Amino acid sequence: MQLTVGDYVVHSGYGVCSVVEKKLNQQLNKYFFLLKTTSTNLSIMIPEEKIDLFLRPVTDKKTCLSVFEQSKTKCIEYSKDNKIRKTQFQSLVDANTFQDSLYLLKCLYALMEEKKKEKKTLGSFDTQFLQQAQRKVLDEMVLVLDLSKVQAEELLKSQF
To answer: What is the CATH number of domain 8-57?
Structure first.
């Protein structure tokens, strides 16, 4: 993947980021990209040779809408066992696709409803996955579909 200043990308752990700068580290003789997350304004430095491990291009509008349509009929499957579920959810995060992030969110919303019926709440790792998936999906929707955060949240809620 080629990056230039001003590009938007999706970081596997932090969501949508803008490419702010490309710097040469004189001591290491390596180029680094400085990224800023769109939701928290966090700065991230990534070595040029590692961008394909952590970053992907932002989904286009057509793909985003298509994934939403497909997600309506996709069956939700997740393990009741915490260790297995954590591994399943982590693999969805690591895949770093819009489709997998949306599916993860759908699983977590279903799990949250299940827990409510039992008068329980999500565990700590489920809550962390929920926050991460929401941030990634909402940030990408805001950018790609040209929506406000509130509009993106409403569209997301209507899907599940």
So the answer is: 2.40.10
Residue 75 has pLDDT above 80, yes or no: no
Q: In a 3-state reduction of DSSP, which class is residue 120? A: coil
Contact (Cβ atoms closer than 8 angstroms) between residue 57 and residue 9: yes
Q: What is this structure's pTM? A: 0.85
* High-pLDDT (> 90) share of the chain, %: 70
Q: Residue 62, Cβ neighbours under 10 Å: how many?
A: 9
Options 3.40.50.1360, 3.90.1150.10, 1.10.3470.10, 1.20.58.1290; CATH for 61-159 is 1.20.58.1290
User: HSE on the CB side for 98, CA within 13 Å?
Assistant: 26
* Residue 48: partners with Cβ closer than 8 Å, 6 or more residues away: 22, 30, 31, 32, 33
Q: Boundaries of CATH 1.20.58.1290 in the chain?
A: 61-159
Cα Dmax for the chain: 57
Nearest CA-CA partner of 43 in 34, 51, 30? 34
CB 41, CB 19: distance < 8 Å: no
